[in-house]
Amino acid sequence: MLVGQQQRLQDDIRALVERFGRKRSALIPVLQELQNAHTTISDFAMQVVADELSIHPAEVYGVTSFYAFLRQESRGRFVFRLCGTISCELSGKSRVARQLENDLGIRFGETTADGRFGLEWASCLGMCDQGPALLVNDRVYTGVTPEHVHAIIDECKSTFGAHAREAVHS
Amino acid sequence: MSADTRQDLNSSRAPMSQKAQQVTPSGSDAAGYIGGLVSVNIDGKDHKVPLGTTILEAARQVGIKIPTLCHHPDLCVAGVCRMCVVEVENQRALQAACAYPVTAPLKVKTHTAKVRQARRHVIDLLLSTHYGECYSCKRNNNCELQTLAQEHGVDFYRFGHVTESQYPIDRSSYSVIRDPDKCVLCRRCVRTCIDVQEVGVLEAVGRSDKTRIGTYLDKPLGDVVCINCGQCINRCPTGALHANDASDEVWRAIDDPKKHVVIQTAPSPRAGIGECFGLEPGTPMTYQMNTALKLCGFNKVFDTNFSADLTIIEEGTELLMRLYKALVKNEPVALPQFTSCSPGWVKYLEHFYPEYIPNLSSAKSPQQMFGAVIKTYYAKLNNIDPKDIVTVALMPCSAKKFECNRPEMDSSGFKDVDYGLTTRELAQMIKEAGINLPDMPKGEFDDPFGTATGSGVIFGATGGVMEAALRTVIELVTGAKVESLFENANIAPVRGFDGVRYVELPLPEVAPDVIPLLAHLIPSWDFLKGATLKVAVAHGTANAKKVMENIKAGGQFSQCHFIEFMACPGGCIGGGGQPIPTSPEIRKARARAIYEEDAACEVRKSHENPAVLKLYGDFFTDGPCGHLSHKLLHTHYTARGKFIG
Q1: Helix H or strand E encompassing B338
Q2: Which of A34, B45, B438, B444 is most buried, judged by most C-beta within 10 A?
Q3: Domains: count for chain B
Q4: Is the Cβ pair B214, A61 closer than 8 Å?
């Protein structure tokens, strides 16, 4: 990691710690916000967080490795999590899944080569009456049909890169 | 949680509900005592306990044993293993006795059919993922899981048994070896490493059936900030953690007729080794061990207390010189001076407070000093080529194994100490040689290092180094006998098991002359007249951290002159190489043995040790902290930092 990047990461973490407080209980919000901003929680970041909160790096690693939504390696700028439970299955999840795989060109559990999109299964998203449910970063889409998939991906593309209109997530 | 490891309630990582149970207020009007007595009925026995007492503690008070696995008297409640489940009347589910505070009258049954079945299933499930068999395990016959399986009549693997290793063994550390296949995830090591030692190397990593005890990023133990104290080994219920055993190498050296194998024995193992032979904790085995070691084949048996006395002279001189430089010459000197006898503490400082390395006494630890003296003075005296000498150190410590492998510890041209053995390893060697230690006749230590003083003995207990140093410093500086200030030369204020102790000693009068040994360094003691010597003692690195933070903030301890730090709770007697189990009561018993041995010594002050004085007369002729002593008896440290690359 370059020194400039490290410095930026450190500054970000310090700002987050200022915001959430120097308590053990601030650990998860700090990690969540950090991941939103940087897509991953890096080795270096974990040590800085530990230092700022006066806990041990192993504890931060323990928490990071416990939660599926906290990641040490990037799963993409936009992580698509399709609800994999039975009620979504009954309302047509499989077709949505096939459409996602086709449109993104990756299988579940993979990330696109450009690092933009990741695709994975989620356990129940709690939207059983409005399935199939799809979570893109922290935004939930319900009643998703294969036709919707294209629009959702497009929306993501338009908020990322040179032609970004606005930051949707964070 | 016992008093000596109890944390400040706000600083421990345990949630409030898992804090040490509030038990035994000293009277019904004691502060914090809100609930009065609550009646419990355990297996038909009526009993009254203070509000907040756990069912486990209440059962122990009426003499009912509830089996435990993750519970440990030094640690906060975890409640993860479910071995201690009991039936509480009117509760549908079984309750963990270790984590259930009695807050209302309760009726408890500890061994109903439901309870027995649940416990049996807990063991069966643990065994289903417990790879390996008992014969090849370091903890065979001293394993809590094995005992539980035996006590609960396990005669087959109800839920199967893994036949393949799931994890590699981590042998990267000089001191501590991790075998995750044997881990039962009780998290005792995690609570030890984070709460008791504040080192924070081990933590539960991953989730669900992927959970394992890991280090930061699952790096090898040798690459993280582990201080090698071995407290995790001492609290591990199974063989998942053990010390890096050097006994094979030691046997090989003994078997080699060309090698001259000498062993030095530290005071704490002698107070503890009896436990490995079924004796009560606190039964000293000093002289029986001398005979046994000779029978094992060691050529010479020396007393580490000799070099403990040497350490006191070197470290004490260093302290007096620092004070002299600071007060008379107005030179910038790092004060307070920290002790450097505990290799766990030294590595802790190197990792977490590297900016304070100048405060650390440059004197080597007694183990390393002895090694250096043996390979130089002793080799010359006996006309033995130092390369043929193998020095073995019997220590209560796993960190000593790391210390003797430090690359800078070879100032004589040879490795100061070749192998470090723990108390447990030596007990095994003695058993292997077919010797029953308690039956041995008493034997003496070998010359020329046979005479040691009581000051050396008490190095083993927390406060001991400080007491030994004070006995010498007081006598040298004031010229008065320590006995005139403290009854029987027992400096009681520095003794005990409080985590941090602070003592002030006024020096109203000073001796007219400086003893010849130091006269060339310090012309007169006048600069200390009327001064007050401020010293402190801390044991367990969590307590050391408190003191260091206080110093950093410019608090009370930054005004101290000399601070003793020991990495292990209770000092060396509670070291990571001592017999398992270790509990507050056992530590107290071992400390008692050590103080009794001190009281029985004829000479009790380091500067009166004739063998040490002879060594200065014959070998270290330029005196303490002189040129040769600097070369052989002093060392330097490495700023390691806590960033894990």
Answers
A1: strand B337-338
A2: A34
A3: 2
A4: yes
